[in-house]
Write a structure and sequence with these properties.
heterodimer, A: mainly alpha, MetI-like fold, two-stranded antiparallel sheet, 25 helices, B: alpha+beta, Rossmann fold, 24% helix
């Protein structure tokens, strides 16, 4: 629609914001890496001389691949059990609740719990099995911790994919004489293949970007890129070296991102389509009772391990020193609500500011990219996704490079923390908005226009109320991420504005694991409350069509 | 509701091109010139893809023409945004706001115009009475049947007292019985309000039932504009003849002409039909024979006064209750014949040898003036 008086200003504002807070910092990062009085590769070449940097690159890629494989396998097992095993409803819900835990926990949670469980004096390794030579630090510990943290991503992805494989297709294979294993191999798994590939890439990307777990469990023998970049800057004050390490991380991250988009967007590759028209209801028969039993054992063990981990965290928060002095005590919580109160308050203030700002940004962006036409629309969509797709360490260092000096000396302010979260975690809301709008016929907006409403009035009176579920989902994700994020914002905090996650890290490095646990428990409780409130509101908004967990945690 | 004559709508040389992926530009609407008189209901009729909906959407302002002008009354609205035109649009899927009640849906356009609350209440309940939905104010669209949603959509469109009322296949989502009932109601409502109306449909029966005039469209152009009767009796092209009702087109040629009438050959006979002066003796043309002006008679029957008879064999038969449709092979072609009231008149078997009698007063030359 030409001559629209509202569209152009809206597009300009959004483009301006994306340019300033996404493209500009990334540009500064690349300039710092490749420009030293002239084009220069010195910074990248300098990395090659140091074995830890070389090892970090290899380790990061190896870890991402291993976590991708393990996480996808585990996610597939959980998804098969959830969608293809005719579980009783309460077990299915219980499975979802447990799987949700790692997704909404602050970083380090799994890592601390694994130290408690499998460390040198670990509850399971030492006290149960009497092992003394278990080494949780290094590749295997990091792999285990990241797999436990990120397999839920694969689970949610594959659950949706498997749920959309029409059981009638399996029935028709049965009717042609195929037996269970053959049907599973040639129909079910074949149809889910693009989804499996997508899940692998998502989990690998999460692992590649993970900063918290290797910082705790990697130790000195297993350096990875995000931690090396962090140490290069905070330990050696070497911005250029940190930027160069970021560049090494940027290349595989972008490759995975491109691959993931290719898998989700290419036509003909995805066989699973949501037609809305489901065939006759039929009982799924592809899994034999023995297969269901085997899956149940594997998933049961993992669920038990996750629950033990969280119980250990909780236990550590209410005793003096878990494993050493197991007497009940509230000292850790006393600390949280005295010395730690400022961090809690700062985090909540920032999270609460982020919600409306980021939510509105998400909805406007989602509306612009899926309902309007303007030059550079696809470009804007892509640019707005960059901060989300890139590892937090890169974004954090880019912000540090761009916003540490005049004229834009913003690091350490609440403003930059909010901006960082808004541009990093609004994507879930944008996607939810696009999904909701895809279900709403454009004639609804045309009807409003035909009745005399301008584009802005139509947006306010028609679009905004209709995308309320998406807005809510987007705001919930922003709250969860603002409560739990660390990789980008650790570079941006200051004495004035601190974050709970940073206090958890301090607790761990000062070996005050009880305090770290108490902070973690507090964050988990707050986030669970937020998810519960959001779910209830969502139900009242009558938005049953949106997969709740999927939408909430799609990012 | 104030009864006020609507405005005249004029389209002058309106063209709209679309670029399909990997193809060259396609003119969805090509040089359409048309005017709709104040208070008139004009239907745009044609098969899917003929450009009728695109034309309607340009009148509404949802699409911009690439060339040509559109006037409502004396005002050139070609460049005007949708929301500045005074239109009421009824969508194929109704497009009711799912988050608003019936009352708020209907009140939407009034609220946009910032009318006082008392006026809004009065106008909404007045118009809900008009469409037969009093007491439905607090329901939500998903609590209504298809027919009720349709009425709300109409109420929402007319409550703002638009200068133009536009319907985009409004009945296509209703079942057959309801469709017939609703088209009578729409027709009554439109006459009562006397708002200039453009109505898009692909259903020729619906168009004939509801319209003052029909504009038949084909491949982006106007094929013929006229009343239902004109289009049926005097189609100007094969396309219109076949699109409006069922038809037998019989090849013929001009034998002689005099005083506005031409003598043409039909089977072995010659008959005189109305025709203009534009025909030359010997010229080839098509005759329009509607199936209901043909009748089955005994094979050996003598032609009655004003009839021409040709022998043939019944090839198929479709019994439809109040009528029977026959396909009869005669004079090297397959003729469609309709016989009404089969219970009283009996049914002819497939394979029977019959005569097909044609009422010569009903025969028209394709493309002749009415």
């Amino acid at each position: 629609m030409k001559r629209d008086p509202v569209l152009a200003p809206a597009v300009l504002v959004v483009w301006g914001a994306v340019a300033l807070f996404v493209l500009y910092p990334l540009g500064r990062l690349l300039v710092l890496t490749f420009w030293n009085g002239g084009p220069s590769l010195d910074a990248v070449r300098g990395l090659a001389g140091d074995w830890t940097h070389r090892a970090a690159l290899v380790n990061s890629l190896l870890l991402a691949a291993l976590v991708g494989v393990a996480g996808t396998a585990l996610g597939l097992a959980f998804a098969l059990l959830a969608v293809r095993a005719n579980l009783p409803r309460w077990i299915a819900h219980g499975l979802d609740a447990v799987v949700l835990l790692p997704l909404i926990s602050p970083p380090f949670t799994a890592a601390i719990a694994l130290i408690f469980a499998l460390g040198p004096r670990g509850l399971i390794s030492y006290h149960v099995f009497g092992l003394t030579r278990v080494n949780i630090y290094g590749l295997w510990g990091t792999l285990l911790s990241e797999t436990l943290t990120y397999f839920p991503i694969a689970y949610l992805t594959l659950k949706a994919v498997l749920a959309n494989v029409d059981p009638n297709l399996e029935d028709s294979a049965f009717s042609l004489g195929a037996r269970r294993w053959r049907v599973f191999r040639t129909v079910t798994l074949r149809l889910a293949t693009p989804g499996v590939a997508n899940a692998f890439l998502l989990v690998s990307a999460a692992s590649l970007a993970d900063f918290a777990t290797p910082l705790i469990l990697g130790g000195t023998k297993f350096p990875v890129l995000p931690t090396q970049a962090f140490l290069q800057i905070t330990g050696l004050y070497d911005m250029r070296g940190g930027a160069a390490l970021c560049f090494l991380l940027l290349v595989p991250a972008l490759a995975i991102f491109a691959g993931q988009r290719w898998f989700t967007e290419r036509r003909g590759g995805s066989f699973v389509t949501v037609t809305g028209k489901v065939g006759a209801a039929t009982r799924v028969k592809t899994l034999s009772p023995a297969a269901v039993a085997a899956l149940a054992v594997v998933c049961g063990l993992v669920v038990a391990l996750v629950l033990v981990c969280y119980l250990l965290i909780f236990a550590a928060s209410i005793v003096r020193g878990l494993g050493a002095d197991n007497s009940l005590s509230l000292t850790h919580y006393a600390h949280v609500f005295s010395g730690g109160l400022k961090a809690v308050r700062d985090t909540l203030v920032i999270a609460v500011i982020c919600m409306p700002v980021g939510g509105l940004f998400a909805v406007v962006l989602g509306f612009l990219v899926s309902r309007t036409q303007f030059p550079g629309r696809r470009m804007l969509e892509f640019a707005a996704m960059m901060n989300y797709a890139l590892p937090g360490t890169i974004v954090g260092i880019a912000y540090l490079v761009a916003f540490n000096d005049a004229p834009l000396a913003l690091t350490g302010t609440a403003f930059i923390l909010v901006v960082c979260y808004v541009f990093r975690y609004s994507l879930a809301g944008t996607r939810a908005t696009s999904a909701v709008l895809a279900q709403i016929d454009p004639s609804i907006e045309e009807a409003s226009a035909s009745l005399g409403a301008r584009r802005d009035l139509t947006f306010r009176r028609v679009v905004l109320p209709l995308v309320r579920p998406a807005l809510l989902a987007g705001m919930t994700v922003l709250f969860i991420r603002a409560m739990t994020a660390i990789s980008a914002t650790i570079f941006l905090v200051s004495l004035d504005w601190s974050l709970v996650t940073v206090r958890i890290l301090e607790g761990i490095t000062n070996l005050e694991l009880g305090q770290a646990s108490a902070f973690s428990v507090l964050v988990i409780v707050l986030v669970y409350l937020a998810v519960a409130v959001a779910s209830l509101t969502m139900r009242r908004l009558n938005a049953g069509s949106l997969g709740q967990a999927g939408t909430l945690l799609g990012g | 509701m104030t009864v006020e004559r609507g405005q005249r709508l004029t389209l002058e040389h309106v063209t709209k091109r679309f670029r399909r992926e990997g193809q060259s530009e396609v003119a969805a609407v090509n040089d359409v010139t048309l005017s709709v008189e104040p208070g008139e209901l004009l239907t745009l009729l044609g098969p899917s893809g003929c450009g009728k909906t695109t034309t309607l959407r340009m009148v509404a302002g949802f699409e911009q023409p690439d060339a040509g002008r559109i006037y409502i009354g004396a005002d050139d609205v070609t460049e005007l945004m949708v929301y500045r035109r005074s239109i009421g649009f009824v969508f194929q899927n109704y497009a009711l706001f799912p988050h608003l009640t019936v009352f708020e849906n209907v009140a939407y356009g009034l609220r946009v115009r910032r009318l006082p609350e008392a006026t809004i209440h009065a106008r909404v309940s007045q118009v809900l009475d008009l469409v037969g939905l009093p007491g439905y104010e607090r329901r939500f669209p998903n609590q209504l049947s298809g027919g009720e949603q349709q009425r709300v959509a109409v109420a929402r469109a007319v409550v703002v007292e638009p200068q133009l009322l536009l319907f985009d296949e409004p009945l296509s989502n209703l079942d057959a019985k309801l469709r017939v009932q609703m088209r009578a109601e729409l027709s009554r409502l439109q006459r009562q309000l006397a708002i200039t109306t453009v109505y898009v449909t692909h259903d020729q029966e619906e168009a004939m039932a509801i319209s003052d005039r029909i504009a038949v469209m084909r491949q982006g152009t106007l094929a013929q504009v006229g009343t239902a009767e004109e289009l049926y009796r005097a189609p100007r092209s094969t396309f219109v003849a076949q699109f409006i009702g069922r038809v037998n087109l019989v090849e013929s040629r001009v034998l002689a002409r005099s005083g506005g009438r031409v003598a043409v050959a039909l089977w072995d006979a010659s008959l005189s039909v109305p025709g203009g002066d534009g025909y030359a003796v010997g010229q080839r043309l098509s005759l329009v024979l509607r199936p209901e002006s043909l009748a089955l008679v005994a094979e050996s029957a003598k032609p009655a006064e004003g009839e021409v008879v040709v022998p043939g064999i019944v090839r198929s038969r479709t019994f439809l209750g109040e009528k029977v449709e026959y396909a009869v092979e005669a004079a090297g072609a397959l003729l469609q014949v309709v016989a009404y009231d089969p219970t009283r008149r009996g049914v002819v078997e497939v394979g029977a040898r019959v005569g097909v009698a044609c009422d010569v007063t009903a025969v028209r030359v394709l493309g002749a003036e009415p």
